[in-house]
Specification:
By secondary structure, the protein is an alpha+beta fold. The protein folds into 2 domains: 1-278, 2-Layer Sandwich (Gyrase A, domain 2); 280-360, Aminomethyltransferase beta-barrel domains (Elongation Factor Tu (Ef-tu), domain 3). Helix content is 22%, strand content 34%. A hairpin with a 5-residue loop joins β6 (83-88) and β7. The radius of gyration is 21 Å and the shape is globular. The two termini are 41 Å apart.
Amino acid sequence: MTSQLPLHARHETLGAHFRTEAGLEIPADYGNPEAEAQAAREGVVLADLSYQGKFIISGADASTFLQGLISNDLKAARSDLGIYTTLLTAKGKTVADFYLFPLPEGFLMEIEWGNAEKTKEYLMRFRLRSKVEMSVPAWGKLLVSGPSSSALMEELLGEPLPEMAEKSFFEKSIEAQRLICIKRSLTGSVDFHLYYPLEKIDALWQKLMSEGEALNVRAIGASALEILRVEAGKIKYGVDINEETIPVEAGIQDEVISYTKGCFPGQEVVARIKTYGHVNRVLTGLILEGEVVPEQGCEVFRGDKKVGWVTSAVHSPFLGKVIAMAYVRRELASPGTMITVNLNQGQISAEVVSLPFYNK
């Protein structure tokens, strides 16, 4: 059975085209995904992310429980700053990647929605006698993104925006309701993730649209967000990483791994790679010739030898070219290396480039 977001009717009035993922209808676009992506690069846009995965991890043992399992150091999180981390297997493979933010009631986990329930089940296997609970908060989530996003946030708050580092957050009362604002880049630009009571999320959407009218705020859907994500070189679980990926291969090790916190599953493997070795493949960027966007899994070749595969690919309005993220052999990951990508209609040439493609 297909479910709908609380803002479904609002999206319909804006002319949204919907697509179904995992039984849920989400806005794919409002007529022109590339124009929506361009608007995010030039002004300010609003997106409904209420479908994304979120949990509150609470209980007397929550901190100790998480610290023993995650790859990053939970002690780096504080009352106004979160962390990005992973769950690894004993072999250093990635079970999940997510963000943790310490709130008064527990740790807010932000996680890719397609991997949310699986990750909850995985964590709860380790609970044993620990006093730990995972619950889904009754919050909607909106994304405010773009160069003018700070200006729109100041209109919403009615005061200057506090100085915010990446992954920092604050709480505020808006219309007598609790608002949690997290600064975390999803698009490569300045992005604010707003959590608000689910039954009031429509009022917040309308308020942002009204306050942002002078800034030409525009709604964008999942297709534009995918373009922005790939341009920004941001990985997505189930697409760019999975249970066969070591964080070093995806290039996220500096963000998600603490080499000083002590033991956690996979710690020996990642420490050994850092000290003595390297991985054979790495995630990198490709700029492709022509207009055909390769599908996930398309093979990458150097001559007649397979050297990798494509994970994500889009047509980039920012570059005016087809771009992709792909795993390639480490020795071929230097910018400027020419390779080929296999498509159903033959091979196309591609140039290896550093990630991200876009970085404000």
